[in-house]
Amino acid sequence: MSKIKIMVVDDEIEIIMLVASKLRVCGYEVITASDAVRATHIAVTEQPDLCILDIGMPGGSGYMVAERLTKNSRTMGTPIVFLTGRTSREDEKQAMDAGAFAYLIKPFKFEELLDVIAAALASVGKEAPARSAGPVV
Questions:
Q1: How many other CB atoms are found less than 10 A from the CB of residue 126?
Q2: pTM above 0.85?
Q3: Domain boundaries in the chain?
Q4: Exposure pattern of 9-37 as b/e (b: 16+ CB <10 Å)?
Q5: Which of 7, 44, 51, 67 has the most beta carbons within 10 angstroms of its beta carbon?
Q6: Per residue in 108-121, pLDDT tens?
Q7: Which fold does the domain 32-48+60-106 belong to in CATH?
Q8: Half-sphere exposure of residue 82, counting CA atoms within 13 Å on the CB side?
């Protein structure tokens, strides 16, 4: 069985490195991007099983990426999780309108992100890797 592939998109390299390294430890394959244009290209080319998007980034917004992915035949079924520092209801509504499965606010608990990933994958008939007994640090 091949690994579940997750794309992490954020303009802050520290966030990408943190999230990507923890996801890899949990058994996921991870691809990354730090701008909207590259994220869209990578998603269409690599066809990840799930996308984690920030909202504000160079080259466009996470909303734009989500809308493009939900309209592209190669990525339209890919669950999208927004992980952002934006806390307004308007931002959350816009993310959900753009096709998001979930909206998480930074700072976040990694266990919560793993729960959302598992639920998002289950919504499209995919199974998250089994978690170890201990917490992910």
A1: 13
A2: yes
A3: 32-48+60-106
A4: bbbeeebbeebbebbeebebebbbbbbbe
A5: 51
A6: 999 999 999 999 99
A7: Rossmann fold (3.40.50)
A8: 28
